Amino acid sequence: MRTIALSEIKDQLSKFLRLAENEEIVIMRHGKPAGVLVGFKSEEDWFDYRLEHDPRFLRRIASARQSLGEGKGIRIEDVIEG
Length: 82
Hints:
Layout (H helix, E strand, L loop, with lengths): L1 E4 H6 L1 H8 L4 E5 L2 E6 L5 H10 L2 H15 L6 H6 L1
Parallel strand pairs: 1-2
Antiparallel strand pairs: 2-3
């Protein structure tokens, strides 16, 4: 993770977007963290990011995990044998 001043980001945004493909960049304003620049190498990376931050998707995952923890669900072996 890299930290960069907002003034530098504004002057060289394209450069920092390319760098953000490989690491998160914390944007500093007046010496304090103000945001994070996250880059994507591909549309698949963008899709994954959206899923990882979608509250509806996260609730469904939590619900599924809870059901499995309660012994509900279908074993993968049963699905494959079909």
